[in-house]
Amino acid sequence: MNTHRKQRGVAAVELGILLIPLVLLVFGITEFGRAIYQYNTLVKATRNAARFLSAQGPGDPADVTTAQCLAVYGNQACTGSALVPALTAAMVSVCDSVSCPTTNQNQPTGSGVINLVTVTITGYPFTSLVPFVMPSITFGDISTTMRQVL
């Protein structure tokens, strides 16, 4: 009976010691998951904008603006909230055969030119909700290139 009394409260002390690293681990996993989710959303946004531009003619400023709206808001009307926090149209750049003539690639047979369109999101800042576990970071360039059908 005396040994039982000495062991009283040991489980609570052990829980207190292990609770801090476990909470930090859970917050770290959560923040890492949020970062991957936002990165994946940005990849899909560039893909949707490039897909839209691949069906349009090169060099139309209205189409570029529409593609930027698709990348930022997910719709062509530029309405609603951004797909991810702090994403702006200034971060979205479009490169096609008119704005970047070097995107025209000769086919291997030399029989013509392939028009490519590239949509890039540059400098997106991921803001961590728990910066002492995972610091805020800035993503590298996220881009998608597709063939432009004329």
Count of alpha/pi helices: 3
Q: Which band does the percent of strand residues land in?
A: 15-25%
Say what oligomer this is. Answer: single chain
Please report the distance between the alpha carbons of the first and last residues.
Answer: 88 Å
Specify the helix fraction band: 40-55%
Task: Tell me the count of domains.
Answer: 1
Sheet with the most strands, sense and barrel status: 3 strands, antiparallel
Uncertain regions spanning at least 5 consecutive residues: none
Instruction: Write the H/E string, N to C.
Output: HHHEEEEEEE
Strand sequence of the main sheet, in spatial order?
A: 1-4-7
Tally of strands: 7
Task: State the secondary-structure class.
Answer: alpha+beta
Q: What is the typical, i.e. mean, pLDDT? A: 88
Q: What best-fitting shape do the alpha-carbon axes yield?
A: rod-shaped
Radius of gyration: 25 Å
List keywords for this structure.
single chain, 150 residues, alpha+beta, two-stranded antiparallel ribbon, 3 helices, 7 strands
How would you characterize the overall build of this protein?
The radius of gyration is 25 Å and the shape is rod-shaped. The chain contains 3 helices and 7 strands; from the N terminus they run αααβββββββ. The termini are far apart. The longest helix has 45 residues, at 10-54. It is 42% helix and 16% strand. α2 (10-54) runs antiparallel to α3 (61-73). The protein has a 3-stranded antiparallel sheet with strand order 1-4-7, with helices on one face. It has a two-stranded antiparallel sheet with strand order 2-3. A two-stranded antiparallel sheet has the order 5-6. The protein has one domain (11-147). The model has no long low-confidence stretch (mean pLDDT 88). The chain is α+β, with helices and mostly antiparallel strands and 150 residues long.
